[in-house]
Design goal:
Mean pLDDT: 93
Shape: globular
Low-confidence stretches: 1-5
Distance between the termini: 11 Å
CATH superfamily: Class I glutamine amidotransferase (GATase) domain
Number of strands: 11
Largest sheet: 9 strands, mixed
CATH topology: Rossmann fold
Amino acid sequence: MALVHHTPRVVLLQVRSLLGPLLQERQWFREACGVGGRAFRTVNLVDRPRITWRDIAGAGIVIIGGSGEYSVFDDLPFIRPLTELVSRMAAEGQPLLGVCWGHQFIARCFGGRVIRDLEAAEIGTIDVHLTDAGRADPLFEGMPDVFPAQAGHRDRVAEAPPEILELAYSSTCRYQAIRVAGTPVYGTQFHSEMSAEQLGQRLELYREDYVPDNATFNEIRATLRPSAEAAGLLRRFLELYS
């Protein structure tokens, strides 16, 4: 399917205070989407909390990225504006993909419950299993029933309403991929923008918060695996919906 170029093709909404992870995320999403220049725009909600429709107007797709510093249930100044924006995107058919924090936020916007669950935290390369709905969804068409992906989270979606379709799960996380029924609004708990090497780089930046024990950290680094199937999801999302 031929890609149609327009400006912007991708708007990435970020939720980050630390410069290192913020710049990493921009670069990795840009590379994973295969777009650059004026076709790729970013808005950091920490700096610009009053997000409006004008900030995403004309976008082919919108992505809400991750956050190592905040949770979706925190009292943050951009929560209400972003909730209103996500609701409008779903209503108007604006393609939206939430990743990690963004995935959790989408679920919360539609009545889902997000919790901190340290016992079920996923840090490293995990196996993602497609549900029947996932195998039937165009975003995952042709994907194997089980594929590796990179993950790094302590919060997770614990409950979701009926309009949230369950597309994929892992051994400790029921909602690895979701879709708001009847819309091009998706979420993935796993990171399709990251390779195993990039996840290792990210863990270095957050190791005191996520993996303070050196032995555990080294064990995780040693078990990271390639995730080629997951890596193609962003370009496929662009092909399908932009």
